[in-house]
Amino acid sequence: MRVLAIFLTTGVLAGPALACGPDTDCMLGDRHYRIAMPEGQSTGPVGAVVFAHGYRGSAAAVMQNQNLRKVVSDMGLALIALKSADDDWVIPYAPRHMDSDGSVEFRYVEAVIEDAARRFPIDPKRMMAAGFSAGGMMVWNLACTMPERFAGFAAIAGTFWMKPPETCATPAASLVHIHGTTDPTVPLAGRAILDTHQGDVAEALDMYQALGGFSPSGETEFEDLECQNSRNTKGEVLDFCLHPGGHSFRSSYLRFAWQQLQAAGQL
Q: N or C: which end of the chain has fewer CB within 10 A?
């Protein structure tokens, strides 16, 4: 509750929580998020997909994706849409944020988790962080910084800026990375943007494989995805899934990632 207390001291959240949901911002000081609970939910707490949008995206735009909302709702999960502090996520080596350590975003995500669990029947032990493009880059940073906060991570078409960090928080978490082989926006090997460079996906996966002691465990196919699977002695997941397309996102990829975590006993 330490991070939430920072927001409470502003007085913004004092007293009864203001109503919020898929069409109304849930305010946290000068930041916000949006949430859509599953339709026909039971009285018990539900798991959640915490979703990070792409460049110049918003929580409101995520909630306007009706297919995404339906897929997550049909899984019996809440959809929590984050909103970056700037047009892009303020994370290490990002354009215009080269000197950032990412802490402004990490504190925000901590506060969102605590606030959502306070306002809604959310099970904080059954949460998956997911994101597309720049949101996928945010997800890799979350996996490296706060692995204990999520049951697993799904990064789609995004990785670290520049290069993987020298070290990440341990123990390693479960992570599913999904990417298009012909992605021109975030190529697998990255590309230069302003004064920085998108990272190489293979380098990120190699770093995390070593960090978590993952070993190859087989292959999986789902729709247009072909996945190389790895597991460690604790049963955590590290899946690298490719599709033959470009810079694209399917809501069903989130269902696949969640199912991979379930099958491995991480949820």
A: N
CA atoms within 13 A on the CB side of 77: 25
Asked whether the whole model's pTM tops 0.70, one would answer: yes
- What does the DSSP assignment read for 131-178? EETHHHHHHHHHHHH-GGG-SEEEEES---BSS--S---SS---EEEE
Residues 90-148: pLDDT tens digits?
999 999 999 999 999 999 999 999 999 999 999 999 999 999 999 999 999 999 999 99
Rounded to 5, what percent of the chain is helix, strand, coil?
Answer: 30, 25, 45
CB 160 within 8 A of CB 136: no
Residue ranges of domains in the chain, CATH in brackets: 2-263 (3.40.50.1820)
One-letter amino acid of 156: I
For residue range 215-239, list pLDDT tens digits in order: 999 999 999 999 999 999 999 999 9
List Cα–Cα distances, 213 to 9, 49, 198, 205, 235, in angstroms.
Answer: 42, 26, 25, 12, 11
Question: Could you tell me if 208 and 139 are in contact, meaning their C-beta atoms sit under 8 angstroms apart?
Answer: no
